[in-house]
């Protein structure tokens, strides 16, 4: 692995994010000869332009957790594939991501490794946070996160891999897209004078905590009751292509007269779920 994860944990009154990042920057300069700076977004940069560390924090009632990463030797091609190219047709209250140029520290210091950087950070942290009287009794401790040492940790790991944890905490968002309407379906929508020629239908899905809440179709369906049936049928369904497809299959079963329209809208909604993961 070429990415070092750091977490500063302590009392909320001692939370100083800038100081933590400065500690990392000072260690890189003092031990490895790498000059860094910290920008207004609390990113650690090298050469005043390339990001080597991003940061996040969680502040509780009494506790504070500051998490950051340090890029040592990652596959930047894979990194850009994972972080780049986010689907744009999503409305939410989430803070927008800001794309940044990145650089591996190993490009500036070839002898640097995740293990050696970790060791140097730990050693300097101990020296800076211990009194002379306690230095002989405290130091760097390696932790083996195994069930035998930390009973219950396996169950915690299993929980963190479940759908409910990964997707079930997702804040509310609406995803939308326009789809070309087959001529055979034109009569099912209020198209005014368009008469279905080159018609486009906009479908929007709203999800909260990973479950569907609402659907909107523009132009509206001529059969107003059908949209209510669809809303009732998808409400509470997981925002997954397979679950959405199954929900529409059940709706079609009870509304055979609108089967073609439901099949089209079902494919649109499943496509939206796929787009969200792009």
UniProtKB/TrEMBL annotation:
GO terms for molecular function: ligase activity; lipoyltransferase activity. It comes from the Eukaryota. Residues 1-133 form the BPL/LPL catalytic domain. One of its GO terms (biological process) is protein lipoylation. GO terms for cellular component: mitochondrion. Keywords: Ligase. Gene3D superfamilies: Bira Bifunctional Protein, Domain 2, CO dehydrogenase flavoprotein, C-terminal domain. The keyword Ligase applies. InterPro entries: aa-tRNA-synth_II/BPL/LPL, BPL_LPL_catalytic, LipoylTrfase_LipoateP_Ligase. Pathway: Protein modification; protein lipoylation via exogenous pathway; protein N(6)-(lipoyl)lysine from lipoate: step 2/2. SUPFAM superfamilies: Class II aaRS and biotin synthetases. It holds the Pfam family LplA-B_cat. The keyword Transmembrane helix does not apply. Belongs to the LplA family. This is Putative lipoate-protein ligase a. It comes from Rhipicephalus microplus (Cattle tick).
């Amino acid at each position: 692995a070429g990415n070092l994860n750091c977490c500063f944990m302590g009392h909320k009154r001692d939370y100083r994010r800038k100081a933590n990042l400065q500690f990392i920057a000072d260690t890189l300069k003092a031990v490895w000869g790498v000059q860094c700076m910290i920008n207004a977004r609390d990113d650690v940069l090298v050469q005043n332009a390339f990001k080597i560390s991003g940061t996040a924090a969680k502040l509780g009632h009494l506790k504070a957790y500051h998490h950051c990463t340090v890029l040592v030797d990652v596959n930047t091609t894979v990194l850009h594939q994972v972080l780049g190219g986010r689907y744009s047709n999503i409305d939410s209250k989430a803070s927008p991501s800001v794309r940044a140029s990145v650089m591996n520290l190993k490009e500036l210091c070839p002898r640097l490794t995740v293990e050696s950087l970790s060791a140097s950070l730990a050693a300097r942290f101990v020296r800076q946070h211990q009194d002379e009287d306690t230095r002989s009794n405290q130091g760097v401790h390696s932790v083996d996160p195994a069930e035998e040492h930390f009973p219950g940790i396996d169950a915690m790991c299993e929980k963190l891999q479940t759908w409910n944890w990964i997707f079930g905490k997702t804040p509310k968002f609406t995803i939308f897209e326009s789809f070309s309407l087959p001529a055979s379906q034109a009569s099912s929508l209020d198209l005014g004078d368009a008469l279905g020629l080159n018609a486009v239908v906009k479908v929007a899905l709203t999800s909260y905590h990973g479950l569907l809440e609402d659907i909107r179709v523009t132009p509206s369906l001529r059969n107003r009751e059908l949209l209510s049936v669809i809303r009732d049928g998808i409400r509470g369904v997981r925002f997954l292509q397979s679950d959405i497809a199954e929900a529409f299959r059940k709706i079609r079963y009870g509304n055979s007269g609108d089967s073609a329209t439901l099949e089209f809208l079902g494919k649109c909604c499943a496509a939206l779920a796929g787009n969200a993961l792009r």
